[in-house]
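Design request, tokens follow.
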């Protein structure tokens, strides 16, 4: 039998679901997959399965199948109703060779104790990233065990205790920070800003969603005290109500992507700023304020460019892969209206590039420019040294990081196919991981690395140029900054902050179109030119 699959774990809470599994057809990789759950009302609900990361266990179990390592997926989204008791679900799988598979999932795997979903919800991301971080630290199997233990453990924190502690802060100087907990530049920035607030003598309350238990973690940091008080609640609104009584309160919205009802949080922020809080600040780390699909990748897998509302309404219901299913029932016009009101209530909007503000203004044309501060991230690249690029042939295109679909995974695969078909003098090397990678893709994936080792890795592979393949408009891009710190030639697509920065870089290439064939052609042309004047 050439078909193998399993749901390794699946859990639900308050209409949200989280889990992981795998599907492997030995003859073809998967194009698309969804978990279909039967509902009590006689209907069924589809939860998209997002293939990502590397399953070393599957690679070892099926060494003859080149795409085995990419057969793992995460499940996260909503259930628009209660599952039918004792009724099996199924995986609906579309393979890249055009075949369709239906694979039964036992009722015992799905479970039945699911609370009705909230009436309003939007955008949750993080399950996949949290799993990736843990897998990178301790390996895939221990990461699964770790996640499952945390998923199944009883909630030891008593909500009343943490709520009482929040209420006790009424007379203190308090900064509330709302954020996701999935790593990346947003969390890096959050940690730096929290340290600044503590040095300023403020208590800092951090609220972040936890995807493994589908609840929220609250952490209370006191100035001059290394001890952190923590608790968990099923919904953040009770905690927000307690914090709202503080007489000297500053609210910092760093990220709301992974909150199950971000619009309710926006309403609380506006009401509290009007009645009690002294300051409300928003940080523009992505485009959640424009669309529940916060990367602005549409249902066609491409950057949407913030089109008309009619096009947005047509796209959103089919775009579960880029909203992770938590945009159910969202109307883009209402979404932007609520966010516009929130942005208008902010004392300051902190952005990290001019390009990101221009995109934000497409969704919010009335945005008051006086409220916006452009403040690029603080970057410490002291551990990186200059690298001399290879100026010979073939051209070695180097890519660093975890390359997901919005970060350009499919673009790299398409570029590799262009190189293969044209027998072109180029190859692609990825330092990190690549979603959807197959052994026969023509791309060499080296796996995870320490950032300080990147200069040596680039030299060892004979890198000619570094490419940021993101097809979504980054608001900053630390990786681009690292490439330039090493004085490597750098290529990016013509969107977002990387394009803005590379346009002024002496050895930079802004590719004219977001297209694989164009990217390969222009990179080869760029590599064949004399080194740019002023380039290191």
């Amino acid at each position: 039998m050439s078909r193998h699959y399993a749901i390794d774990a699946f859990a639900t809470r308050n209409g949200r679901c989280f889990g992981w599994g795998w599907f492997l057809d030995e003859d073809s990789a998967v194009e698309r997959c969804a978990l279909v759950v039967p509902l009590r009302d006689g209907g069924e609900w589809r939860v998209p399965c997002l293939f990502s990361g590397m399953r070393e266990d599957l690679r070892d179990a099926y060494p003859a199948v080149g795409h085995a390592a990419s057969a793992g997926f995460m499940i996260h989204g909503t259930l628009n109703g209660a599952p039918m008791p004792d009724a099996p679900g199924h995986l609906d799988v579309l393979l890249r060779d055009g075949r369709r598979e239906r694979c039964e999932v036992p009722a015992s795997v799905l479970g039945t104790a699911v609370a009705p979903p909230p009436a309003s919800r939007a955008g949750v991301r993080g399950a996949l990233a949290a799993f990736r971080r843990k897998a990178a630290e301790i390996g895939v199997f221990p990461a699964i065990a770790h996640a499952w233990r945390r998923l199944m453990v009883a909630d030891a924190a008593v909500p009343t205790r943490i709520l009482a502690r929040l209420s006790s802060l009424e007379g203190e100087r308090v900064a509330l920070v709302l954020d996701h907990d999935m790593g990346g530049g947003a969390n890096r920035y959050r940690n730096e800003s929290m340290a600044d607030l503590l040095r300023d003598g403020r208590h800092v309350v951090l609220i972040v969603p936890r995807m493994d238990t589908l609840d929220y973690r609250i952490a209370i940091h006191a100035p001059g005290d290394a001890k952190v008080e923590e608790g968990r609640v099923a919904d953040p609104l009770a905690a927000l109500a307690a914090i709202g009584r503080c007489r000297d309160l500053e609210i910092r919205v760093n990220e709301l992507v992974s909150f199950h009802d971000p619009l309710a949080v926006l309403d609380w922020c506006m009401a509290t700023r009007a009645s009690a809080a002294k300051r409300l600040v928003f940080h523009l780390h992505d485009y959640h304020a424009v669309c529940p699909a916060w990367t602005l990748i549409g249902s066609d897998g491409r950057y949407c460019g913030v089109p008309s509302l009619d096009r947005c309404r047509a796209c959103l219901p089919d775009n579960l892969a880029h909203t992770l299913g938590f945009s159910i029932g969202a109307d883009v016009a209402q979404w932007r209206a609520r966010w516009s009101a929130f942005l208008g209530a902010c004392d300051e909007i902190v952005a990290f590039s001019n390009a990101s503000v221009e995109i934000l203004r497409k969704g919010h044309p009335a945005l008051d420019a006086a409220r916006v501060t452009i403040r690029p991230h603080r970057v410490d690249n002291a551990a990186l040294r200059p690298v001399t690029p290879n100026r010979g042939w073939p051209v070695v295109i180097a890519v660093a990081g975890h390359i997901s679909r919005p970060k350009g995974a499919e673009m790299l695969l398409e570029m590799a196919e262009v190189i293969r078909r044209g027998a072109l003098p180029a190859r692609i090397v990825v330092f990190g991981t690549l979603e959807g990678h197959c052994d026969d893709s023509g791309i060499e994936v080296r796996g995870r690395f320490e950032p300080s080792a990147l200069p040596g890795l680039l030299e060892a592979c004979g890198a000619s140029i570094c490419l940021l393949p993101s097809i979504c408009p980054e608001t900053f891009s630390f990786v681009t900054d690292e490439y330039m710190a090493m004085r490597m030639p750098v290529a990016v697509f013509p969107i977002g902050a990387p394009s803005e920065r590379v346009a002024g870089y002496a050895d930079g290439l802004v590719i004219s179109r977001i297209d694989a064939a164009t990217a390969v052609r222009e990179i080869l042309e760029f590599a064949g030119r004399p080194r740019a004047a002023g380039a290191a």
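Comment from the thread starter after seeing the answer: thanks! The longest helix spans residues 184-199.
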